[in-house]
Design brief:
The protein is α/β, with parallel strands linked by helices. It contains 23 helices and 23 strands.
Length: about 700
């Protein structure tokens, strides 16, 4: 069948819609970066199909292109005459997922809220058309239920808590202990018609799934909706927003020093974190929540509100369990930040909002060159064509360095500035940490490489058993065993040629054989690395940076390795110390998304992919989704290679378009000619989203 006839069968021609996130390439050019469309806030230069090019390569390509143009110019006129007589080209062939029905339940507002058990799930998984909300002739002017204070913390004053823990002393925003940290509010319901996440699960992580957050209840505590922002952003008070803001109250952040507030909170509660605890008391582990930023970064009002939320919910209201840090990349290597305190402080003040000055730590690539000096020999393939000390290829250097300067933390969260969360930060961070601690090591690496799709796999316990059974029939070709590692992974993977590894840490050797273990080893052990996308084997994909491996003998096979797309992760002290030691002692390194999971693989550390809920804008067929995401037909089809277009309509991936569109609609903005203040007020009201992690957010 010709390509023309295939286009004639295009199912999208049967759909009446002008809604899209971008113009997608056709079937002959799917390796190219997609181009943006109206109001696209996400950058196409991050689509990692071909890698970024060095200056030398760019010049070479430019010369080749000039020669080709010169050769073609002679025949240009004849071709122009031919083109005038040819029919217009057909539109690009769409990807299959574009033919699925659009899900609109996300946009139903707070005037449609019902108790969770009355929600009509919008997903029909392509078996039939999704149900649509038919607006009645009249709707209540305000939500049919009252917002509630959202408090996911332990009951710090309860006898049960105090039996095993120290007393938690309340923290405040000011020196005089008069301004209490504000609360956030949620609605105890969900819009009447609402989608379910396609992969990941609230119940699996122990999170509430029966509430939703609208923007005033979520961000009003941090400045959204106050007089200045109402005027600036056009936020109104219709539909119950005044009632929510009255519950929250007003907080004046103009004189808040978050660094001092965080330090006071720790000092009040430091007995909770001491290494030595009285008999019967349990030590609370500490976390550094590290926000990766840089000089020249533009902090918008929305950024500042998000940052206040993170500090308030993670650090102050937890009694000092977390500290928030700004790890600021100083791009100008000529600034001697390590040599002059005045220059150091001046750089902070010129590049970080004043209320966050006390949270900033500076670093530069020049500093990393001194901390991890050359040589870094024997790279396999440097697809980026850039220096090993450049942030693009070694973002982990700065996190490793940070962990050595702040050894008091048990965990470090590597967080990016283009992440947003519609739920409560403490609930999310705490629950996924507890989930990781509960995971048995048996089959964990094999579960990590798959997307958990509840509609296909059932409960997570059933998913665990399913993967275990599948492993029994899996056969790895003999010539792939070095690249992929043993089957299944059980303890440190350190028997490959030329490893030159440091000894694996204590406690990483399995206490028994894989077959004899009854899913018990690892239960109760904190995860050394928690990721938010599957931890996959790059040798089974055409991910472009799969062989950016440095410091190992490149005349021998590439070591087995693993990757988690997006460097966002929670890393343990043991994990970071091992990464640091491997880097400075052995001169080992890999591309940033590959380095921490590969170190965990080699050293037998506990790694887990967190199955957090991820939504899609289309009503995918689940069997097809399972095949595309978990069983790609070829290396090229993998979602971690050229198949990454399948992620464009998701709420979380490095190139997801839906994430930003959904977030901006939730903020009340117009997107793709839809939404906005008038549509909200004349329709069902402000959007109310269940907790969901959005990435990337490139504009608000």
């Amino acid at each position: 069948m010709s390509s023309l006839r295939l286009r004639d069968l295009n199912p999208l021609r049967l759909l009446h819609t002008n809604f899209s996130y971008q113009s997608l390439p056709n079937s002959e050019s799917r390796t190219a970066s997609p181009s943006g469309s109206k109001r696209r806030k996400w950058s196409t230069d991050k689509l990692r199909i071909g890698g970024r090019l060095s200056l030398t390569k760019m010049l070479t390509l430019a010369i080749v292109a000039f020669v080709c143009l010169a050769l073609m110019a002679g025949g240009g006129y004849r071709r122009h005459v031919q083109i005038k007589n040819e029919p217009a080209p057909e539109p690009p062939v769409p990807f299959l997922w574009q033919a699925y029905s659009r899900l609109d339940g996300y946009y139903n507002g707070i005037r449609t809220l019902v108790n969770y058990h009355d929600v009509k799930t919008e997903n029909r998984y392509n078996a039939s058309a999704p149900p649509r909300y038919e607006k009645p002739k009249s709707l209540p002017s305000e939500p049919p239920m009252e917002p509630i204070k959202y408090d996911p913390y332990p009951d710090y004053k309860s006898p049960e808590y105090l039996k095993n823990h120290h007393e938690v002393h309340e923290c405040y925003l000011d020196n005089e202990d008069t301004i209490s940290p504000p609360d956030v509010y949620a609605y105890p319901g969900v819009p009447e018609i609402y989608p379910e996440p396609f992969y990941g699960s609230y119940s699996t992580l122990g999170m509430r799934d029966d509430v939703c957050f609208e923007r005033f209840g979520r961000l009003g505590a941090y400045g959204y909706g106050d007089a200045a922002n109402q005027k600036k952003h056009g936020v109104g008070e219709k539909g119950g927003s005044k009632k929510v803001l009255d519950k929250i109250g007003y907080t004046d952040y103009s004189k808040v020093n978050w660094g001092q507030a965080q330090e006071r909170c720790y000092e009040k509660n430091k007995a909770r974190f001491a290494k030595e605890q009285p008999e019967g008391k349990e030590r609370v582990k500490r976390h550094a929540y590290v926000l990766r930023t840089w000089t020249g970064f533009k902090y918008t009002d929305h950024h500042i509100m998000t940052l206040r939320a993170q500090i308030n919910e993670l650090a102050l209201k937890s009694g000092g369990e977390y500290d928030v840090h700004f790890l600021v990349h100083v791009k100008d290597d000529s600034i001697p930040i390590w040599a002059d305190e005045a220059i150091y402080q001046k750089t902070i003040e010129e590049n970080v909002p004043e209320e966050f000055w006390g949270l900033a730590t500076l670093w530069s690539e020049k500093q990393m060159e001194m901390y991890y000096p050359d040589p870094f020999p024997d790279n396999f393939i440097n697809m980026a064509g850039s220096s090993i000390h450049g942030v693009y290829r070694s973002a982990h250097f700065a996190i490793q360095w940070f962990s050595q300067q702040f050894k008091e933390y048990d965990f470090v969260w590597n967080w990016e500035m283009d992440l947003r969360y519609t739920g409560h930060y403490y609930e999310f961070n705490n629950r996924i940490g507890e989930w990781g601690k509960d995971q048995p090591r048996k089959g964990l690496w094999e579960r990590n490489e798959r997307f958990y799709i509840p509609g296909v796999h059932g409960t997570y316990e059933n998913f665990t058993k399913f993967v275990g059974e599948e492993m029994k029939t899996r056969d790895i070709p003999e010539n792939d065993k070095i690249a992929q590692g043993p089957h299944p992974v059980w303890g440190p993977v350190n028997s490959f040629p030329n490893n030159g590894l440091l000894p694996a840490p204590e406690g990483t050797k399995p206490p028994t054989s894989y077959d004899r273990d009854n899913y018990s080893w690892g239960v109760g052990e904190d995860a050394d690395i928690l990721t938010f996308n599957p931890i996959f084997d790059p040798s089974k994909t055409n991910w472009v940076f799969r062989e950016d491996v440095t410091g190992y003998d490149n005349t021998l096979p590439v070591p087995p390795r693993r990757v988690a797309i997006i460097t966002v992760a929670r890393l343990s002290r043991r994990m970071l110390d091992t990464m640091h030691e491997e880097t400075w002692r052995m001169r080992h390194s890999m591309f940033p998304e590959m380095w921490p999971p590969s170190v965990a693989l080699h050293h037998g550390l506990k790694a887990a992919y967190v199955p957090h809920p991820v939504y899609f804008d289309r009503d995918w067929d689940l069997d097809y989704m399972n095949q595309v995401f978990n069983y790609p037909e070829s290396k090229e089809a993998s979602t971690f290679g050229w198949g990454e277009h399948n992620m464009l309509g998701s709420s979380f991936y490095y190139n997801a378009g839906f994430s930003g569109a959904l977030w901006r609609r939730w903020l009340g903005k117009e997107e793709n000619g839809e939404g906005g203040k008038k549509e909200e007020e004349n329709g069902t009201g402000r959007m109310c989203l269940r907790p969901v992690l959005h990435h990337p957010i490139k504009g608000e």
